[in-house]
Amino acid sequence: MALTDIVLQQLVNGLVLGSFYALVALGYTMVFGVVKLLNFAHGEVYMVGGFAGFIVLSLVSGTLGSGWSGVAVSMVLAMIGVGFLGVLIQKIAYQPMLSAPRLSILITALAVSLVLQNAVLGLTGGRYVPFGADLGFGGVNLGNLFISYNQFILVGTAGVLMLSLELFISRTQYGRAMRAVSIDKDMCRLMGIDVNRVIAVTFFLGSGLAAAAGTMAGAYYGSLWYFMGFLIGLKAFTAAVIGGIGSIPGAMLGGLILGLLESFGTQIPGIGSAWKDVFSFSILILVLVFKPTGLLGRSEQERM
Amino acid sequence: MTHLLQKVAAGLLLAGSLSGPAMAQDGMTIGLLVPTSGSEATYGQDMANAAELAVEEINAAGGILGQQVSTIVGDDACDPQQSVNAASKLASSGVVGVVGGYCSGATLPTLKIFADANIPFVITAANSTQLIPANSGNAFMINSTGNDQVAKALEFFNSKNINTLAIVDQGDAYSQDLANLTKQRWEESGKTVATTETVNKGEQDYSAVVTAIRSANPDAVFWTAYYADGGLLIRQLRQAGYQGLIAVGDGSNSPELFNIAGSAAEGVIAFSNPTAEFLPNAKSFVDSYTAKFGNAPGPYAPLTYDGTKLLAAAIEEAGSTDAAAIVEALKKANFTDGLAGDISFTEENTLARSNFIVLEGKGGAWALAE
Q1: Which of A140, A141, A273, A281 would you mutate first to test chain B, the one with the most B CBs within 10 A?
Q2: Nearest by Cα to A48 from A12, A64, A70, A24
Q3: Which of A44, B118, B138, B161 is deepest in the core (most CB within 10 A)?
Q4: Are B213 and B221 in contact (CB under 8 A)?
Q5: A104–chain B Cβ distance below 8 A for any pair
Q6: Does domain B2-144+279-331 have CATH number 3.30.420.100?
Q7: Which run of H or of E encompasses B194?
Q8: For residue B61, what are the contacts with CB-CB under 8 A and spacing of at least 6?
Q9: Residue A55's closest CA among A161, A231, A205, A214?
């Protein structure tokens, strides 16, 4: 492969990977914006989303087939189901802790992560579950450059989801309420905004986006595992921090940047695949040193 | 109270040490050092069963030197401390020899105990290269070591006219050792390593590494780590249009690989220890094992069966239960009745040939490669 082919191919790889990171990072950043909680169970929500999509797909594949139409329906239903799971987690585990010290709720989030992980471990026996989607291998060949149709669909879907979220937040009443709650919760209460409802909507949306990413990952990579949420949870958190945690465009940008950094880091001579994470995390450190609020974050340090 | 307990314990110990030699007089006892409790218990039980089956057949054919043979199990629990206790128990019960050794870490400290007690030890599964220098001459390893896997892999690649190789590991000690050793030997033989890559365990997306491999365009890709991430890598390599040979090390020869990689695992090559289902000579062994124990023999059953038969043959050859004579007979062994192939030893008492077999993915399962 010529150098330009390699660069373009890694660009495509980075965009696909970055779309997953961005979708999961959005959940981190929205929840942090509204309740100032680093929801470390979010990676597991992504994993549960994958399994939810798998269950729906195995129910609908008889009538809709296991191609993209079946996967699309599974994704939407998994988003709704896991969205409600997110609300349930928030009501049971986080709501009682909202006025407790920050550390308590952080530990609760870790506990939720363990509960979800071990529940799925118990149900699956730790085995890999084939997702069962049949998406085909087709794609576009441009010389040595290969882009599969699945990659187009995946990046496109992620783009549509992110655009809808952006519209929801900037144009709807709930979106405005979310932004208001993230600035001053007590003032919102005084203004008659149902803060708990806004928090529930935030968890619903964040978990739904993670479920979309989980279902797409299951369909695209072909299998599910109870531990698959751990690493992507960490990476998405990193992406959220790079973009500026609490900032929604920041999470999207951070996800794409991290995906591209990892893809190109693998190919840079002298760095190579063994060091690509060192490369990405060095960039994270540089961002934090020179711009602690992240690339698109606002400086309101007194609230953290 | 303490004194009473100590006396009772001393009495029991005395009774135990007396009954050992007494048992040895009306027959011969072979010790089995296997984990029958703990995390590896299923493998240990499996090995004990295989040895028992071998002893049963030996007794039916008239025993060893005209004497009937019995077995005694020392449970090492795959734990270095418990294995020392188990080995001491076996050494003090007057066994003529010991067969077994599953976990390398638990087998290592027992080597000195059996050497001091002057007991021949046939190691049937443990295969760390660390065991070789710790052996004072009475232990014999009948499972191939990691070095042999590399030898087998190189032999296979050469037979397929592979000239350039991409080696991918997972950054852990096991897969990196295998990768480094393969790279070293491959380059020593004058061939080219196109690229070496490392992936993170648990990452789902290997597209960047796949692109790096495609741009290096090797004849073959050798994955040295485990099936979980290997399955994803294989799938993504094939999806991206890589058409060369893909081979995986013994950490990946699980049927689960087919769950993860799907149809992309067709034609993938795996190097594996000799498991019963792929051994042409093991058919009747599998049948009688399954009939007796109600389940199919596990991965190290054939080797343990072979090890027990080998020890019996060596005692027969030595003509007595004298340890030095048995060790001498084992050193010169040329055992051809093995399920997993012939056994003879190097200067270092390791298996003289590689017993790794080559498997190929066919129809969603492993089959013996041509």
Answers
A1: A273
A2: A24
A3: A44
A4: yes
A5: no
A6: no
A7: strand B192-198
A8: none
A9: A214
Which strand (E) or helix (H) includes residue B259?
Answer: helix B256-261
Helix axes A228-243, A3-35, angle to 10 degrees: 80
For the complex shown, is ipTM > 0.95? no
Q: Which chain A residue's Cα is nearest to B176?
A: A274
Which fold does the domain A3-303 belong to in CATH?
A: ABC transporter involved in vitamin B12 uptake, BtuC (1.10.3470)
**Residue A215: predicted pLDDT:** 97
Distance (Å, rounded) from C-alpha B209 to C-alpha A282? 20
Tally of CB atoms within 10 A around B157: 22
The whole-number pLDDT of residue B358 equals 94
For A34, residues 6+ apart whose C-beta sits below 8 A from its C-beta are A178, A181, A182, A198, A199, A202
Which of B305, B123, B31 shows the shortest CA–CA distance to B313?
B305
Cross-strand bridge partners of residue B67: B64
**B259 → closest Cβ in A128, A146, A217:** A128
- By C-alpha distance, the chain B residue nearest A137 is B239
Q: Give the distance from residue B263's alpha carbon to the nearest chain A alpha carbon, in angstroms.
A: 11
CA distance B151 to chain A (A): 26
CATH of domain B147-272: 3.40.50.2300
Distance CA B179, CA B210 (A): 17
CA pair distance A292, B353, nearest whole angstrom:
60
Which 198-227 residues of chain B touch chain A by CB within 8 A? Answer: 198-200, 202-205, 207-212, 214-215, 217
Smallest CA–CA separation between B212 and chain A, in Å? 6
Cβ contact (<8 Å) for A223 and B199? no
DSSP annotation string for A66-110: SSHHHHHHHHHHHHHHHHHHHHHHIIIIIGGGTTS-HHHHHHHHH
Q: Is A155 on the interface with B (CB under 8 A)?
A: no
> Between A and B, how many CB-CB pairs are < 8 A?
92
Rg of chain B's alpha carbons, rounded to an integer?
23
Is residue B165 classed as helix, strand or coil in its secondary structure?
Answer: strand
Q: What separation, in Å, do the N-terminal and C-terminal C-alpha atoms of chain A show?
A: 48
Q: Is B69 helix (H, G, I), strand (E, B) or coil?
A: strand
Residue A33 C-alpha, separation from nearest chain B C-alpha, in angstroms: 28
Interhelix angle for B227-239 vs B207-216, to 10°?
A: 60
What is the Cα–Cα distance from B39 to B78, expressed in whole angstroms?
8
**Beta carbons of B317 and B141 less than 8 angstroms apart:** no
Residues of chain B with CATH 3.40.50.2300: 2-144+279-331, 147-272
Tokens of A297: 């974050």
Which pLDDT does position A272 carry in this prediction? Answer: 79
Please list the rounded mean pLDDT of every run of 10 residues in chain A (304 residues): 87 94 95 91 97 96 88 96 97 92 92 95 86 83 84 95 94 93 92 94 96 95 91 93 91 94 86 83 88 81 45
**Extents of the domains making up chain A:** 3-303
Burial of A170 (0-12, 13-18, 19+ CB in 10 A): exposed
* Whole-angstrom distance, CA of residue B250 vs CA of residue B245: 17
Name every residue whose Cβ is closer than 8 Å to that of residue B122 and which is 6 or more positions away in sequence: B97, B98, B99, B100, B139, B140, B142, B307, B308, B310, B311, B330
Stated pTM of the model: 0.79
Beta bridge partners of B74: B33
Chain B interface, mutation test: which of A4, A11, A13, A230, most B Cβ atoms within 10 Å? A13
